[in-house]
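non-specific serine/threonine protein kinase structure dump, as promised
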Amino acid sequence: MNIIKSIFTKPCSPIYKLLGSRSRRAVCGNGKITEEPDDYHPGGLHPVSLGDTFNFNQYEILRKLGYGQYSTVWLARDSKYQRYVALKILRADCYGGPHDIFEREMLLKIAEKNCHQGHHHVSSLLDHFNHAGPNGDHVCLVFNVLGHHLGHQIIKYEGLRLPVKSVKVITRQLLLGLDFLHRKCGIIHTDLKPTNILLELENPSQVISQYLGKVPPRTGPMRGGIGPLREVLTTPLIPDMAKPHVRIIDFGVASWRGNHLTDVIQSPALRAPEVIIGAPWDAGVDIWSLGCLTLEFVQGIVPFSCQASKKGTWTVEDDHLARITEIIGPFPPQFIEKGSRASHFFDKQGNLIRIPNLSPTSLERLVNGTAMPFSKPSDMPNADVPIFVDFLRGMLAIDPETRKSASELLQHEWINRGAE
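structure tokens r here:
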């Protein structure tokens, strides 16, 4: 039996589940899901209503744009400069509490180090201030309003695949942004994922004014009553944009290269090997995440999506390490030795303890297989396949010591071949 067929049809193979979990995003939004219901308490989120004003009435809240564990984000009108802005209101305990994140300081550093092309692909701080509310003192951050995150874009394409030409444009911009963050600012994002990569709006003032005029505010169950729900500003598909431009956002869990906020970083499917086994980590974790995302953007698959055994035979982390080994190859012994948690996963010979029987495949077979979702994209020339795989290998090297940096990857043939 052809090995690739047996790998993808064998239920006990960890890579088998790729066929059943091609994306970690779920499409929902019927207005019935309560947003952040338990986070409005002392030290938590600040309660906001449409029409509220901040910073001595400078910013008036118009719509809700998003929310997360540490903040809510709002579309606001800036009366001082007559513009629309995105206002991010952090939890009260983000500063002076148990979390004490670095976000404001990092954004000020980014604003200071603006003599690099990558500066244009990172969220830019316009203003910041503090706001006293019933749940404490909140740091508030002001940004330009952006459009869709890439997760919203991907679900609009057949097979969840973006056009290869668009992926090259986006990936190059992301590498510029990461090179700027890593080398000029000393910042590791640690949470690069589709929802943290946003497209700039073309003619933002016009787009936002038209949206506000046509679309009534979304409301629904909130904190025991009815309140504003998040909205998505209309954004064209990437190929329909004259010059697609992305920005990396959200530094709420980012770390300085010399001062880590936490060692629990990255979305599980995008988590670098060194983080899983407890080895030292640096800027290379962002490069690993980008490698996973680039393959996802091109093929519509999440290469290292993982889950625990239903029988409890292996854990999510065991499955993750098995998938990496099956696709990329065995973990180098000298790298395993650096992991404080490595003995939990590997025996003395470097074999996985709980998943000893693996079904090896390769990046080549994920990109140029015989059937969907592993077939070659129709818009990728045959000659580009080995070049693309080599590009991916530079980002998905298991040992971060051999992983390429953003500046090195910007020189790669694939990212420059045929790109505008």
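The chain has two domains: 3-29+147-219+232-416, 35-144.
lmk if u need the other ones
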